[in-house]
## 1
Amino acid sequence: MKIKGLTAGLTFIVLMIGGIVISVATGYWATESSKEPVKYETGDFAGEYNPADIRGSYSFQDIENTFAIPVETLAAAFGLSGEENPEAIEIKVFEDTFGIIDGMEIGTDSMRYFVALYKGLPYTPEEDTALPRPAIAILRKEGAQSADELAAAEAKSVTLDNFTGESAAAATEDHDETVLAEIKGKTTFAELYDWGLTAEQVESVLQMDAGPRTQTVRDFCMEKGIEFSTVKDPLQDLLDSL
Amino acid sequence: MKKKVKARRWIQIAFFVLAALIAVNHTLAESGMAIPFVAEASLHAVCPFGGVVTIYNLITTGTFVQKIHESSLVLMLIVFGAAILVGPIFCGWICPFGTFQEWLGALGRKIFKKKYNRFIPYKFDKYLRFLRYLVLIWAVFITAWSGKILFADFDPYYALFQFWTGEVAVTGFIALFLVVLLSLFVERPFCKYACPYGAVLGLFNLIRIFGLRRNADTCISCSACDKACPMNIPVSGQSKVINHQCISCFECTSTDGVCPVAGTLEFNTAALKGGKDEN
């Protein structure tokens, strides 16, 4: 049996369209990461979305969809009400937009912290995570956090008036390579080893076997039920001591 | 040029435009100005090679490498399925970067006439063609090692369709410049020497169901097939052409391409009538 060019070309196109249609119909087709954080599996909050799994690629709209916090509230909390399409703002822009203010950082973890407080969900922010003052004002009025949690958040607040536009990247310009080795949510075990940590050092912090090289430390922590922030700082200390 | 090979040109143009639209629309979508009815996916998400480089990660951690999603895996499987049938038809008919090189090649052909695509003697060239397997091994290894698609920093295809985004590394632009330059001398230089996905798909030529078969009894030895082959495969010397570089473009065949004798050169499941598979 022979096949002609046009038949072969059209067969391929039919196969492609058919394959895509089937994968869409079965719900497998995805061209971007799921914009739904994982849910708490146990405890008082079982079944609710876990703010610890909020990613930099999430937009304000994604946060509204999952945590039911209006986009307008999120934009106001982070001083972005004047933006044209606040629903499309992705959290990852925080680091470039705000970066480091008064030695503290407004980044993806700030959104995790804000959402957790707003919804009254448990979350331990990273040590240098900051919240803008407007966020504190909103939490005071609408947040579900306890008084102690609010006080802790106030201690981590920074004013956007002092924001100089200095990005995290610019702030680290004068530092050496070791300082640039900064553990973030997307840091993989491979990067830890590339930066000079040994598997033994990493495992001593984790108190268990490390994950595969290509897995991010944060995903590993989520998988094992460990708070990422509790291993991030000791690992960062090890890196800084190299 | 026969009518049906023209169909390949139109399909190539359609997929080139589609890839360009998706790439531009992804940028527009980030600023909330997406073109209606056009996919907003990133270029990585619709690249079937992403499926290949993420396999190790999928097996070991159950997750995709950064920027690669389920869509890449689906497309990879579709392309593999088609390749089992008719070989790397994706390369010859669909790949927008192959199309881009062919367009540049048309310019090179005008400049160098018959000398075009004949600068490197085949006896040396056929060994250089294995370079792309080294690129494949390296691309898969560094992705498995890092969990990131570091190959994108050297990928001329990514550079071509993302040059306005600020996400393309200098090395990507250098790779693109080299491909543009070489395309003026050699047909599809990236496909021949460096494309890791072409390397994967090329292996399907060894097991494809519809093989390229030549009937030596009716062949008039005009060598038109050799001259037409963009990958410089010496088609006229074989009864069954099994070559890892074939891109299933059909340019050599008697059904669609330059072969002047009907029933002499076809993609077929069995030896052609009156002939036999000799090698």
## 2
Amino acid sequence: MHPLKSIFIWMVMLILLTGCWDIKEIEDVGIIVGVGLDVDSNDDNLTMVNQYVVPGKIPTQQDSSPQSVPFQNISMTGDTFFEIIRMNSLESNRPPNYTHLKSILSSTKIFEKERADQVLDIFIRDHEFRRTTPVFITRDPVLDILNTEPEKEVFPAIQIKSLSENYQINNKNPKNLTVGDMSQYISEKKSFLIPGVSLEEGKVKSSGAGIIEAKSSHYLGWIDIDDMEGVRYMHNNVVGGFIYLKEEKLKEGPVILEIKGANTKFKTNVQGDDLKMKVQVNISSVLAEDWGLGRNVFKKSWKNELEEAANETIKEKIERILELAQQEYQTDFLNLSKWVQIHEPKYWEKHEKEWDKLFPELDISVDVHTEITDFGTQNFNAK
Amino acid sequence: MSDLKQMTMLQLIVVFISTMIGIGIILMPRDLAKEVDSPDLWVSIIFGALAVSVVICIYVTLAVRYPGLTFFEMSSTIMGKFFGWIFNFLFVVYSLIVAAYILRITAGIINNYLLDVTPLYTVVGSFLLVSMYLIYNGAGDIVRFFQLYFPIMMFMFFVLCLLSIKNLDMQNVRPVLQNNFGATFSGIKITFFSYLGMEFLLIFAKLIKKRKAKHLLVTMWTSISLTALIYVVFHIISIGVLGVEELKEITFPTIEMAKSIEFQGFFFERFELIFLFGWLTTAFTSFTAYTYASTLGFKSLFKPTRWFLPVAGVFIFILTMLPKGLTEVFHYSTHIQIISFMAIVVLPVILLIVSLFRGNSYASS
């Protein structure tokens, strides 16, 4: 090839290959870590809170002098979320970018006013939002929670997400619900629970869950933190936590068992047109703290009493949540229909349409089997 | 020109798998979920593989009777000049349409997930130019390219499978084999077309080394079963991660599945980018194969010149830019399936029947 020719090609390539339509300098991007969804004070418009990162104010190792907070919450009101997002540009010089969104916090009010599937639309449709972003619900004003500066974490939005990751240690914490999970429940037309947070004495706490009903796609009610244990067993996602055995159940004094693992099995039985469900929970635990005096763990059969009490305690909790689901709310937010579908596909095909009517009447028996495998390093306080 | 004159069996298998796996792996979960509507949809893929394995026998019989002839030479030998020309023309149209379809879907995905504001024609144009550059040097280089990227593709699929185990909810895949058989079987009309690419046995005929029926059958069946295996694994993962109801609604289910893989604080926190780069190569390989087939077809239709490659390029570009949006593209896909069926089943069957009647076999030992 002639040298001039090759030089010409080089020049053309330099011009052609350097262009980039999609360039976005990271300095010009307004990174958003949290989104809050609420309705305004008159309950007639949508409010969206965007939590921006203010990079210059993030505390560093050298300079830890107290400054103003490293985030900025822009709360705006409008008819649609996309409109609000674009209206943000009136106030923020850096346009919002949602690829690093860590959590979405919604108020119960917005799901009372609007359908959950409609609210979720933009978060599913837009490719900038990810299916892995967790969603939370709260009964307190969303802006207040997103304004609460956490102590150890830098951003409130990340704090909320981190709290929910403690589900392995505590069985009262609800497990994460991502945008993707939510979309799956909605397209399967099933009721579900959104993990809740609340503001207590100026501190953000993980607490309970909010129920979204399938048909109306609206907020139905709240599950309190004390009832969450039963939910976790029914969702079969208990990996850790504790069982508190009250004094009434044991004569020596209260005992705490640490859960090492749990497994819930669902069995169904169809006779004619009658469906029966059996919930079998197996828990493996160790003795964590003993307030009773005189228990000798070297003596055989010390466990029997404790295991018996634990079975009863867990059974009560599960029956309590089943009562809430079947009697109070009459909604299958525990997703029991899934097990019917898996185990009795023929029955499900026939009764899928009338499940809402059948569920409150469903005969569910609970059977708990607790096993204590260990007692710790010392036979302390023994007789 | 390339120095590659003969392909071994392994190279053939690589070529077939690379052409078969393309956009099907991205789009099929949705179509199949709509059609079968149960977690058993992966069974339909196996049915599809069985159906294709039968169709393969036609190609192998043709390839054995006319060793070393491509589809285009074969058709004029069997059908005579005029009908042969029509057959070739139809096949060229088919290749062009399929190439354009692959390109449009790929460009749509690039625009959706990677390059948001880059105009469509730039994405389509650059993709097309790179492919034409590869074809310029002939079949040998195409095969070499396929061979080079095949391990990378397989590695990408393997990594995706491994990483998605964490998100897998096997309850979504249950109940297994409880769906009514008819619905599962009807999925065959979708899965059958995910094996498009096996007709390249007749396109790459000149380069095939071992031309005995036994070898060809073994090669084809191996590539079909490997492809089926990859499809089945991917579909089970897709159902496990997203659920059947969700699959029906997501535009590109497999990419969303890759997108839901996230490792906090890990180097690959966003896995879908890496998956997309791996997948783009597979789309590129299928696209290149069809563009090559169309240029080869052009050569048999008209007096050969050097300009057939750019002509095919221009046709593909126009066809690609024709639909207004993805909705139209998805709408066309049913028509494309009919055209594909004509081109890869009806035409070879007619060829085989006529050739059996005329009995002018070239078969040598």
